[in-house]
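We modelled the chain as a single entity of 91 amino acids. Its sequence is:
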Amino acid sequence: MMPTLRAGDRCIVKWGQTAQVGDIVVARRPDRPELIVVKRVTAIEPDGHWLEGDNTKGSHDSWVFGPVASAGILAVVTYRYWPSPRRLFKP
């Protein structure tokens, strides 16, 4: 999710919240449900949520694993509190 989030950032999430386009979410990867990913919702389609990383050249996202069903969206990321506090706004 660079440049928005980096490895080691600490964030506050809202579990069980309905995701909207532009939200950063915590989700289960549908092709490998044991993996948890953090991605941005770029579209909501009948088949599920289309997720993409902010680093388009270095991201494995819905272009690789397809849409994520609503049940696969675990939480919405709302705030980064470490290393520097920042509210995460939708683009």
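As a brief sanity check on the tokenised model: Residues 10-82 form a domain with the Umud Fragment, subunit A fold (CATH 2.10.109.10). The mean pLDDT is 91.
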